[in-house]
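2024-03-11 09:14:02 INFO worker-7 job=invfold-0412 stage=load source=structure_tokens
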């Protein structure tokens, strides 16, 4: 895949969207450490960025759990950037790697606490006119799921530290969702995800860096303290004890936004212990 030039702004999986990516990558299954393979198709549409258009991200997630309380995973991505009135671009996206820790993961079901750290590495081959450059990010997260007979709810918190040539930024995110399990197979959920830009360190053309209140170069509506809120609707179906298909849709609820609409579909295959809700 050859790098091409274009104009685009937001790529799923970075900064504010990392919270959405975490939810999408769960695929409707419980969040504890596990062994699995997942095929995930994500898409987003924006009209307010520097270059309006659609982004499609296809990834294969592989995760291995040597013990019930820990798992390691990697998620390479193929990107298609389809901008309005511009020839689409195809190439590799950045790669995510992560570790998840679930204390007493072999014993707990109704109350599950999972902690994790995700790192994103600059493997992207698509080159853009308004390009963010090589981007690194680290995202620690914590998720808690409470399950009753059929009703369940989940809360999550995370912080993303993202570094690229224009500087370093920190986003703090929190979200929650509630759902109901029908026939032990079908699980619709409704939730939200909010994030706040907590820190901006801007790198000037001279090479000097300083804490700034404005957005970094190459991004919009990311000034210090900027707030974004997305509504989330999800549906998952456990067709076997070892298999789950899922669909998610995200809609922005505030003026400041990364996209007009976004969503994902995925299928995952679980190995070993029964892990779906």
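2024-03-11 09:14:09 INFO worker-7 stage=emit residues=277
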């Amino acid at each position: 895949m050859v790098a091409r030039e274009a104009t685009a702004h937001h790529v799923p999986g970075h900064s504010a969207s990392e919270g959405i990516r975490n939810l999408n990558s769960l695929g409707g299954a419980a969040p504890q450490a596990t062994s699995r393979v997942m095929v995930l198709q994500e898409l987003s549409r924006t009209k307010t960025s520097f270059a309006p258009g659609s982004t499609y991200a296809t990834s294969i997630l592989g995760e291995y759990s040597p013990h019930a309380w820990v798992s390691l995973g990697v998620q390479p991505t193929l990107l298609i950037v389809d901008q309005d009135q511009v020839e689409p671009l195809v190439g590799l996206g950045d790669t995510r790697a992560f570790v998840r820790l679930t204390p007493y993961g072999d014993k707990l079901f109704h109350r599950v606490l999972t902690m994790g750290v995700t790192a994103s590495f600059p493997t992207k081959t698509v080159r853009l006119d308004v390009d963010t450059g090589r981007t690194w990010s680290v995202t620690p997260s914590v998720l808690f799921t409470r399950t009753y007979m059929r009703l369940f709810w989940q809360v999550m918190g995370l912080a993303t530290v993202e570094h690229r040539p224009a500087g370093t930024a920190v986003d703090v995110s929190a979200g929650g969702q509630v759902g109901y399990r029908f026939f032990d197979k079908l699980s619709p959920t409704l939730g939200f995800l909010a994030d706040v830009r907590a820190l901006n360190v801007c790198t000037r053309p001279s090479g000097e860096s300083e804490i700034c209140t404005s957005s970094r170069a190459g991004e919009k509506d990311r000034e210090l303290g900027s707030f974004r809120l997305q509504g989330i609707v999800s549906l998952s179906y456990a067709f076997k004890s070892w298999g789950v298909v899922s669909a998610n849709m995200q809609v922005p609820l505030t003026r400041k936004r990364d996209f007009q609409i976004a969503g994902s579909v995925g299928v995952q295959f679980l190995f070993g212990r029964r892990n779906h809700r």
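2024-03-11 09:14:09 INFO worker-7 stage=report msg="The chain has one helix and 15 strands."
2024-03-11 09:14:10 INFO worker-7 job finished
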